[in-house]
Write a structure and sequence with these properties.
single chain; 10 helices; 9-stranded antiparallel sheet; globular; Rossmann fold; 6-stranded mixed sheet
Length: about 375
């Protein structure tokens, strides 16, 4: 690739308000220990980058060498392959906030869809982070697929609304390839994931952002706007699994850990009892997370809400790899008590269906 400085320049989309970043850098300069959490999909998790080659780990090491010492910077990788900002919001307490982060990097641009659900989930996620107890700095990262798909447009509007720093790896790759300064293969070796060098490029962009932010005078911290951009419908999303579920009658579903991202679920076994899984819950929104698999023993299950069949979920997918899939099964204006029943469809009683977890919102919030 030609002209790395130009790539860094193109990637710096918006410095945002730097008050929280300056506060973070002051902690570092004072010798305090800080925690960085990277929240996103497979690109963040380390796909094609390797354990030590993912951009978050590379950046954390680079940052530690320049600004402090490596033992003063804790790295937490909260990236999970195949997950979007809805799933990120469901697991934000478990995977991010319980670590009391000083800074959180958010990457979901190629995993989200361009619809109201994902716009509101993304904004709700940003608000959960910004309003959490430790008030961490939040940095947004936008990547792209080779053919161009991403959700930068809708996410950038949210970033501007909350005056957050934003890096667009997408813009940098696009402009550099259009100018003939690089090829996609300089960044990634499949249609979406950066290879080790691509991960290093993202880490370099993050280092460039901190260099630029460090040079700027400190901004006055701004209050969060009173008005939301898309909505905070899912702000109080919570994760529910076998460890904290109440009013569950598991029936023929037994404890299961086959979905490594959600190891406390339930699974209907081929040789098990055939009784349905039943759950009583008070909620206005309920998401079901289930396992997709390319094993032909993966079957279909019917989901009933208050005795009415809501949908049929097929857990067999040719491209499945025991990954979590998501379905929005309850959507109401306010919380109501519901009875959820999940059972195998006729003919699939001797197949498997794994419930990984649920995500739910249980009270009314203004839009």
């Amino acid at each position: 690739m030609q002209d790395n400085d130009r790539f860094l320049e193109y990637s710096l989309l918006d410095l945002g308000n730097n008050a929280r970043i300056k506060s973070f850098l002051k902690k570092v300069s004072d010798g305090e220990q800080v925690t960085m959490v990277f929240l996103g999909g497979s690109i963040t998790e380390r796909y094609n980058g390797g354990v030590d080659g993912c951009y978050g780990k590379v950046f954390t090491e680079m940052f530690g060498e320049k600004y402090t010492t490596s033992d003063k910077v804790k790295f937490r990788n909260a990236g999970l392959a195949g997950t979007d900002s809805v799933m990120g919001l469901i697991r934000v307490e478990r995977d991010v906030l319980r670590h009391s982060p000083d800074i959180v990097f958010v990457e979901f641009a190629v995993n989200d869809s361009k619809d109201a659900l994902h716009r509101e989930a993304y904004e709700s996620l940003l608000l959960r982070l910004l309003q959490s107890e430790k008030k961490p700095a939040v940095v947004l990262i936008y990547v792209r697929a080779q053919e161009g798909y991403n959700c930068q447009g809708q996410m950038q509007a949210a970033g501007e609304h909350y005056q957050l720093p934003m890096l667009s790896i997408s813009d940098a790759v696009l402009r550099m390839t259009e100018e003939g300064r690089m090829l996609w293969s300089d960044y990634g070796d499949d249609y979406i994931h950066p290879h080790r060098q691509g991960n290093r490029m993202i880490a370099d962009c993050l280092m460039n952002y901190f260099h630029q932010a460090d040079l700027m005078p400190e901004d006055a911290e701004v209050m969060l706007p009173d008005e939301v951009l898309y909505g905070r419908t899912f702000y109080n999303m919570q994760l529910m699994d076998e460890t904290n579920a109440r009013s569950v009658r598991a029936g023929g579903f037994v404890p299961d850990n086959s979905v490594y991202q959600f190891p406390n679920g339930w699974c209907h076994r081929r040789e098990g009892y055939k009784e349905p899984f039943e759950l009583q819950i008070t909620a206005r929104h309920l998401f079901l997370i289930y396992r997709e698999s390319n094993d032909t023993n993966a079957g279909c299950a019917e989901v009933y809400i208050d005795g009415v069949r809501q949908c049929i979920l097929d857990s067999y997918k040719v491209t499945g790899w025991n990954n979590p899939a998501l379905r929005h099964i309850i959507s109401k204006e306010c919380s109501e008590e519901h009875r959820i029943e999940i059972k195998m469809i006729p003919g699939d009683e001797h197949k498997e269906f794994a419930i990984a977890a649920f995500g739910y919102c249980d009270n009314c919030l203004p839009s």
